[in-house]
Each structure stands twice: as C-alpha cells, then as structure tokens.
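User: Sorry, what's this?
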Amino acid sequence: MIRSAIAILAALAACSAFAVDITDAQRAAIEERIKPVGEVCLQGDSSCGGASAASAAAGPRSGEEVYNAACLACHTTGAAGAPMLGDAAAWGDRLAKGMDVLYDSGINGLAGTGMIAKGGCMDCSDEEVEAAVDYMIDNSK
C-alpha cells in the first residue's frame, strides 16, 4: 500500500514537471487568452493608464459633443416630456424663465420630470452641461 502511494506520488510529480515546462511564446499566448477584457477605473485614479489625464488634456467638450453624447436620446424624441431640439415653442416658455434656470435644470435635474442631473452625463463638467444647454437653445430659435 505504501509502495503504491509512493508510485502514485512519483507519477504525479513527473507529470507536473511537464505541465509547467512551456515556452515563453506558449506562456504569452495563454496570458493573452485569459487577460481581462477591460478594467474599471475611477476618476482621478492614476493606475488606469493615464485615461483621466488624457481627457483632461483634451479640454472641455463642445455643447454639440455633450448634446450628442448625453442629451440626444430625450431631446430628439421628446421622451418624458423633454423639449425637442428645434421646437421653438417648447423652449420658449423655458427660456422665459431665464438662462440661469435652464442651466440649473441641466446641471441638477428637474424634480418631478424625466430630467436627471446632467442628463446622466456624470463625467460632464457644469460648464459642458451649460454649453449643451446653449447648443439646444441656439438650435431651437
């Protein structure tokens, strides 16, 4: 019984020696196949390959860019009562309240409506949201 256990352990040891004996190319191929698809980065995290530094270096997005990224879905369809881009009548009542009110609605959302803070663009600065509001107003006169 002890001899058979020793024989089994010896066989396992011999087999395991072959299992780790792979070339660098094989190891690289395995690592490539099992690497993560992506990574989670938090804003300001320096271990994310400099992504936040690159976006900061690019400068603020234009109103049109923010509109296309965050506002377009609701403001081209009228979803949840959103005033549609180009609809001067829908924007007229809102514009009568003043730009500060419109900016505040864009940045902080509007309770009781479908307008959420920053239109859901949580990586948009307040200035970028204001630029998107300006873009919508300019294109709705």
Summary: The chain is about 60% helix and 0% strand.
